[in-house]
Amino acid sequence: MKSSLFAVLLLSVSLQSQTLTYEQVKAEMESYFLENPGAKGQKQFDRWKYFTENRLNEDGTFPDPEILLREWTLYKAEHARVMSTQSTANWQQWGPNPSFRVGRTQCLRQDPGNPLTWYLGTPASGLWKTTDGGINWTALTENMPILGVSDVAIHPLTSSTLYMACGDADAGTLNNVYSTGVMKSTDGGLNWSTTGLNWNFSASRRIGRLIINPDSANVLLAATSNGIYRTRDGGITWTQVRTGNHEDIEFHPLNSGIVYAGSSSQFLRSADGGYTWTAITSGVPATGNRVIVAVTPDNPLAVYCIFASSSAFTGLYKSTDEGLNFSTLPSTGVSSTVGPFPWYALTLAVSPRDEDMIAIGGVLATRTINGGTNWSSCGSENDYHDMMFWKNSKDSMFICNDKGIYRINNLTSTPTGVTNFNADLNLIMAYKMCISPAQPDWAFCGTQDNATYKLNTGTSSFSGVIFNADGGYCVTDAATGNFVLAQKEYGQLFKSTTGGDAFSYSACSPPSMANQGYFVTPVGLHTQNAQIVYAGYDEVWKSTDGASTWATVSSFPGSTDLREMTVAPSNGNVVYVSTGSNLWKTPDGGTTWIDLTGTLPFTSSLLDICIHSTDTSRIWILRGGFTAGGKVYYSSNGGLNWTNVSGTLPNVPANCLVHENNSVDGLYLGTDLGVYYRDNTMSDWVSYSTGLPVVIVNQLEIQYSTNKIVAGTMGRGIWISYLYQFTVGQEQEKDSKFIVFPNPSDGIFTVEKEGLATVYSMDGKIAAQLLLTKNQNKINLQSHPAGVYLLEVLSNGHIYRERLVLH
User: CA 533, 711, 798, 750 torsion: positive or negative?
Assistant: First the structure.
């Protein structure tokens, strides 16, 4: 029997860039689960496999995680002229924005001089700031690729000076979001520079906590996976004062010469401001796996700590003599609240005005108001990463978890008045998404750990949760949008015939394969008959009655789960499928299959299959991983021969491709560094990411009725932009008599063209619509907010388009 699952998992993955290959890590973990059926952590491991297996070097080794930043910088430098002159996209965030559940958050810090100014660190979506107490948020790190933020330290006197600990403190090893060290801003987070604690991603390090000395603000301490670091010159130089893995660190409330820390095995104390450290063993375990500490101004002599193994809560301890000796506090029921993942979710907070009010978070959250004698629940959402009492509040506490940021009030009695501050945030990690051709206001997306969502921008209820757990593929019929299939992890399907308003939870998956597919199992609809459904497990299953009954229609060698499936837009009987290293095609709905594996231009990591909108023999495939110059391949004869059309794309994974049905064969490519565009009038790809954060794009779809392209991202939800040709006007009629002036304008635009005029806002909504005549040729937008709008005039069967800029 091996040691604890999570110890094995963390050890294996944390060593990935130094000693172990991906196949070695995978083999070790798969062996563990075979030996321990039903063991906790299978889902986390499979999620890690899904993300990682398509992000490897050509030889199967782990990449240098710094490659994303390097490739982005290199691409911008080499394409500076093109990026500055090429017509650009106009991406806007579209959703989901359910406010109560928006994605993973890691830490919250309040400005000591302004309690309404907060900084929110997230593990995959960067740093956010609010100046109005959480009503509105601004992203501060939009142009930094895949930036995690694990902590923020604010200068106690000059609050415009900030220090940001980069990385994902709790799951860097699982999401490959490692730390680049500590960065510094002197303008409230608008601009950032590196400090002397400046690591390469490839060092695979994490920072658990970053604190600033309240009495000497140039002194900071960082608890990291590579020891405790100290600076006394505001971050210019740092000294490693202790080696080993450290999770947490806190100053004494009144005496900054005393510092407490938790390592991966011990409670530590320093009496000289963090230079030297002593392990304290009186009253606490001699070893552990994770140690979290907390202090309170209510009793400056008190210090608290919790110990946990990699898979279970161990105990809660309190010292009343500044950390020299400890006693055990009662903690009945806390173990079940913390749950089996304390290596991932574990946090501790004590009220600043009541030393007996203690809160602990893990999978769930609990609190005591009498020093541990009794405990009760204080949070319903899950996976807690930070708890912080409101400044000087006795019983009002902020929490950061995998669903967002919240405040819980009235902890003294029964916790009430839970307030979320998520309305202006979107941190959703979207695995897959789909739009409804028949309902342009609708979309569906399956997310990491935050359920499957329906968006409906045409109602006041912008989005709703279909079900919990990880989501996956979502598909909907093109004719009405009423038939919807959505998915939990491993291919468990759910069906709606009312446009997603209600789902059947009775299993509609293939009966012998329910919940047995790949972590994100491919599903597709026949494009002319939505009653015909294809689902890819280790074989292709087909239903001809709307997912009620199923039959297998393939017999592939081996038992590898299918990764990719694409149904031809112009002929729903033509389907291409792949396991990632193989490619098959059926021309007749599964009756016969053609093995195209031998023709493939590479041997692994086939990441997407795109079929031409009207010609089933014209296809493109994408190669995952990091192979310079090998991203996109094209076949004009159904996969018999291939041409590399990668051009000068950056060397990052190419994740998804969609073909636009127009005269120039527009192609939109989603990568780990945003979106790129190419058509048959161009010799290379161009960046098509204006307005889009530097983020992983997992899915792209075209909404032809609104001339939009929609992107599902890994960390920033769903975004929408006008199509390339619509944006640059290549499809509009050319007419010297179509004149709009003044433009820009303060609200009144004069148009010299008769016809039906429609003005769209950049989120696709109609801002104005009127009939233009010789006598009535003015468009009034004075009641609308400043920004860019799109004018479309239908005149004598021709369409004329122009951008309107409203000051």
Answer: positive
Q: Give the chain's count of helices (H) and strands (E).
A: 8, 62
Tell me how far apart the alpha carbons of residues 642 and 600 are, in angstroms, rounded to a whole number.
7
What are the φ and ψ backbone dihedral angles of 93, each rounded to 5 degrees? -70, 135
Q: How crowded is residue 77: how many other Cβ atoms within 10 Å of its Cβ? A: 9
334 DSSP assignment: H
pTM: 0.83
* Cα–chain center distance at 433: 13
Give the model's confidence band at 567: pLDDT under 50 very low, under 70 low, under 90 confident, else very high: very high
- The closest of 349, 276, 274, 336 to 306, measured between CA atoms, is 349
CB 747 within 8 Å of CB 786 = no
| CA neighbor of 785 nearest in space, from 758, 800, 804, 757 | 804
Interval 421-429 mean pLDDT: 86
85: confidence class by pLDDT, cuts 50, 70, 90: very low
Q: How far apart are CA 668 and CA 666, in angstroms?
A: 7
Percent of the chain beyond pLDDT 90?
53
Residue whose C-alpha is closest to residue 93's, from 703, 738, 764, 622:
764
Would strands 278-280 and 267-270 be described as parallel, antiparallel, or unpaired?
antiparallel
Looking at 158-172, 448-462, 611-625, 680-694, which range is the least confident one? 448-462
* 436 vs 449: CA distance, rounded Å: 24
Longest CA–CA span in the chain (Å) reads: 90
3-class DSSP assignment, residue 767: strand
In contact, 480 and 498? CB cutoff 8 Å: no
**Structure tokens, 644:** 């590399």
The answer for residues whose C-beta is within 8 angstroms of residue 73's C-beta and 6 or more apart is none
Are 410 and 122 contacting, i.e. CB atoms less than 8 angstroms apart?
no
Task: Please state the φ and ψ torsions of residue 175, each to the nearest 5 degrees.
Answer: -110, 5
Least Cα distance to 42 among 487, 519, 486, 507 occurs for 519
> Is residue 264 scored above 50 in pLDDT?
yes
What would the pLDDT profile of 274-318 be if each residue is shown by its tens digit? 999 999 999 999 877 899 999 999 999 999 999 998 889 999 999
Instruction: Look at the chain and count its residues.
Output: 807
Task: Please tell me the chain's helix, strand, coil percentages from 3-state DSSP, rounded to the nearest 5.
Answer: 10, 40, 50
| 64 pLDDT more than 90 | no
Phi, psi of 583 (to 5 degrees): -145, 130
Q: How far is 303 from 281, CA to CA, in rounded Å?
A: 14
Q: In the structure encoding, which two tokens stand for residue 64, read together?
A: 């240098």
Question: What's the 3-state SS for 29-50?
Answer: HHHHHHHCCCCCCHHHHHHHHH
Kind of pairing between the strands at 739-741 and 718-722: unpaired
DSSP 49-86: HHHHTTS-BTTSPPPPTTHHHHHHHHHHHHTHHHHHHS
Task: Render pLDDT for 432-488 as a digit per residue (tens, 0 to 9).
Answer: 999 988 888 889 999 887 778 888 877 655 567 777 788 899 999 999 999 999 988
CB contact at 8 A, 367 and 374: no
For 731: left if phi > 0, alpha if psi spans -120 to 50, otherwise beta; the answer is alpha
In this predicted structure, what is the pLDDT of residue 405?
Answer: 93
| Position 554 confidence tier, pLDDT thresholds 50, 70, 90 | very high
pLDDT in tens, 108-128: 999 988 889 999 999 888 999
Beta-carbon count within 10 A of 760 CB? 21
Degrees (nearest 5) of the Cα angle 444, 448, 451? 50
**3-state class of 724 per DSSP?**
helix
